[in-house]
Design a protein that fits this description.
Blueprint: H1 2-16, H2 20-25, H3 27-49, E1 84-88, E2 99-104, E3 110-116, H4 121-133, H5 135-142, H6 145-150, H7 175-178, E4 183-189, H8 191-194, H9 199-221
Length: about 220
Amino acid sequence: MNDLAFALDFLRQLHANNSKPWMDAHRADYHRARGAFAGLVTQLLKRAQAFEPDLAPLSPAETMYRINKNDRFQQSDEPYKRHMAAGFKRGGRQSPWAGYFVALEPGGETYVGAGRWQPEPAQLARIRQEIHYSADAFHAMRQNAELLRHFPAGLDQSNALKTAPKGYDRDDPDIEWLRLKSFFVWRSIPDADVLRPDFADRVVAAWQAAQPLVHFLNHAVEGE
């Protein structure tokens, strides 16, 4: 994983020089850094395919996101993302299914995650319905000791409605969870841990711990 040190250093420089002229002048370094990340993705995908059949048809290229920002979502003048990322889910990175994620970013911003971030309204409604109908299974899954060992914060609650969603009572015992607009677990990883030889092992172990969450979410929307 020594090449990941180069990739982190490249991303650190990109953060300080986020412009097309700089990228054009350092295109060879970008391809080397991208290749290092692709090597990690290839290893992770092969290992994930061993426990997640939905990923079997995917190639590494189908999981890796572009480093160029999408103009529709520009919030700054920077043309490039500050990270390299991949989404491992049925149908590839842009599919609407829940899945597994990894992003490489210096400064302790690398993260491993799993679940579904901001599903479309119809999917969100089905997930809420599944929580409402299968509350015991949902709570057992989100409170699972192995999941919380890898993702101590549990489900990310930063993205939630202020009130009850349409069709639910604000006094519903599960309202805290029905308000969520994303169903996602994640944790950040220090740069030093990214460079450890067991980094890939730890990512895969975290994904395996989150597999029940991914399956719960995909089961909820399966009937669409």
